[in-house]
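Handout, tutorial session.
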Amino acid sequence: MDWTRILTNVVGEIFAPATAAYALAAIGLNVHFGMTGLINMGQAGFMLMGAYGYAIATMNGWPVWMAVIAALTAAAVFAVILGIPTLSLRGDYLAIVTIAAAEIARLTVRSSSLTAVTGGNSGISGNDFKGSFQNACPLPDGSWSLGPFQYSNCLSNSWWLRIVAWSLVVIAIVLVWRWMRSPWGRVLKGIREDEDAVRSLGKNVYGYKMQALVLGGLFGALGGMIYVLPSAVQADALGRTLTFNVWTILLLGGAATVFGPLLGSILMWTVLMFIKSTLRDLPFDIVSSTQAEAFSWVLVGVTLMLLVIFRPQGILGDRKEVAIDAR
């Protein structure tokens, strides 16, 4: 087996845009679940709002900064619409509602009646919305090599995209670190532990939950934008499987921790790449590429089951931090 190529692929996943996108989405889910105790099973819906909001805005000639604001606004409005009737729910009931809301959003944007706006089933081609982001690149044209890694400076899947993506991850981690140590963050933790006790102290529990839902959704929207910039916007790629992956990342790294989402995202995608690259490079024709892909995801499911059973707090987490009141 070509171990040099395999290890190069694995290391490349550490700073890939997709890894950063999932880390951002998991950080947002950490605000929902880890800090506040909201079991949001619809994080893909916020990523979808970010992806489509940004793509549609840029297609209509908006500059990058306005398109980002439009995408974040769409995610915030989605959070408010979702939160107003549902934040009084707890535990499994909230999970059911949020996954249904994300599916409603996905089915709406892929509707044939919105083909002129969202592209319907076909989605939005990358060439239709990536131009303004690429034009904002301050790097010179061409490509640049860093050891075995060579990418375009400004085009799709570029160094420019990696710089922006991982800068956003760093900013998000710093913000969550500050929030967790602020009075506001301590109220969220109190809500997670016993919202009735927090309510008895005169705190507006509903308002704090709404704030957490919106802020976590904004991180999800940023993740959605980064997720589609290397390729295209397709509604079915922003569905239930995406939410499952984000939850796996959060539980793997550790909920209610600062660096858990980042560690979980890096571990998940590097291990997946290692398994797929190794299986495809076996000297014997045991599995095809399609089977290697499927087997790697089977291992993800098994890993999640083992995590929930034996270490629900994740690698960096504390078991006391993930106790859920499902009343």
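The second record follows below. Compare its token runs with those of the first.
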Amino acid sequence: MLAKEQFAWAWLSGLVVVPTAYFLAVSAQTPLSNGGILPRLSMLGAALVTLAVVALGARFLTTGRGSRSKGFVADERDRHIESRSMAVAYHVLMGGMIVVGCVMPFSASPWELVDAAFFSIVLAEVVHYGLVLRGYRRGTRD
């Protein structure tokens, strides 16, 4: 398995586990418990820091397993897979941001906007790395 594919698996796993835990923790809070902004901000910060640790750890582990010679040097196939997956993920992200920026401000609370934006970013990344993995597993077809 290539280092890029290993990183994609690790990052996709982190993108599923960490935000799921965050959104479950947020949904477990009762709406009437108004503890201020700090507890909610600390939960979001913990999720983002955990995602950063997962990304750095995945990058370190995938480049440290003797694949330094091959590493993350992209060939034509890698660039093709990356460009196709980024194109789809971009549209997912733009759709989410249009909803967050144009529709939700009229009816949502500020934290709902933050959570929806976070969800849109995570969804776009899941789509991106899911398509990267699909490209490595099934090959590229035009």
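Points raised in discussion: Residues 95 and 120 are 8 Å apart (CA to CA).
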